[in-house]
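hey
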């Protein structure tokens, strides 16, 4: 290569490629929008109530056209008037207060008993040997079938109703707390032991946090069971409460009153589930989970 030959520089352009001239026109770029982002354009609360609203509209249409007779199921307008009348004269608020008190007391007793038994059985092999077989045997018996015995043993007052609720709640809490403790990864236990944690330290920092998600799941099931037990308890030898209203309405074929009571049960259960969800967000902030796409 002679001294007069020019060497190509790293920034030199090939002779056959020319830069884009302004007169060729600019390329319009559109941002890529994911499917999940498009779905968020519709508020989630609106999507969640779409199904119930469609069901309500279908119900109203069937009632208005006579396909669904009033002797089978009252129309939504009739049920709305009945709900207003029961609320205005104080019948429904009084019944709700009585039912809420029963559920609250039974839930407290059942949660304490079920959680305590689950901890004793999950944390100790001796506790498992003494407790688990008995609880599993009692769990196989439908707790609703215990109503006649509860009436004989405890009378017809508040005690058998609260006991029935507490029994249904305790089984769910026991099973989920026990399974949550026994489901903790063994490697976490070994890591805690290698870091010098005592037995109480392992329980406090490893086992209990690991069992907390299962306990929250058990609480959600327990709340649903509590309302179910309340329905059975209040329709047997009760003189107040939402179940008592339903039992009276059944004798007079008042489907509107029955549906109002069922709607109240549904909303109270939904409210209880919402409270548990808030507790999960508060207590389980350390555990990110998949929330759907």
């Amino acid at each position: 290569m002679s001294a007069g030959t020019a060497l190509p520089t790293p920034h030199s352009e090939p002779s056959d490629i020319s830069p884009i001239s302004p007169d060729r026109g600019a390329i319009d770029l559109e941002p890529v929008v994911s499917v999940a982002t498009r779905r968020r354009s519709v508020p989630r609360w609106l999507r969640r109530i779409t199904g119930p609203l469609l069901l309500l509209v279908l119900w109203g249409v069937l009632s208005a056209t006579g396909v669904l007779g009033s002797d089978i199921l009252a129309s939504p307008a009739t049920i709305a008037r009945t709900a207003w009348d029961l609320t205005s004269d104080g019948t429904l608020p009084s019944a709700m207060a009585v039912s809420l008190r029963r559920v609250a007391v039974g839930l407290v007793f059942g949660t304490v008993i079920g959680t305590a038994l689950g901890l004793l059985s999950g944390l100790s092999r001796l506790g498992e040997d003494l407790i688990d077989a008995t609880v599993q045997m009692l769990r196989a018996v439908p707790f609703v079938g215990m109503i006649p015995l509860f009436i004989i043993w405890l009378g017809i007052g508040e005690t058998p109703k609260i006991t029935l609720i507490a029994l249904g709640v305790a089984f769910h809490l026991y099973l989920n707390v026990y399974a949550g403790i026994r489901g903790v990864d063994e490697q976490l236990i070994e890591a805690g032991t290698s870091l010098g944690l005592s037995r109480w330290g392992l329980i406090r920092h490893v086992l209990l946090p690991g069992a907390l998600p299962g306990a929250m799941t058990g609480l959600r099931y327990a709340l649903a069971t509590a309302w179910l037990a309340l329905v059975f308890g209040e329709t047997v030898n009760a003189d107040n409460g939402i179940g008592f209203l339903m039992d009276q309405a059944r004798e007079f074929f008042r489907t509107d009153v029955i549906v109002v009571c069922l709607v109240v049960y549904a909303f109270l259960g939904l409210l209880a589930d919402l409270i548990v969800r808030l507790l999960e967000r508060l207590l389980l902030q350390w555990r990110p989970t998949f929330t759907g796409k």
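Residues 101 and 162 are 9 Å apart (CA to CA). The radius of gyration is 31 Å.
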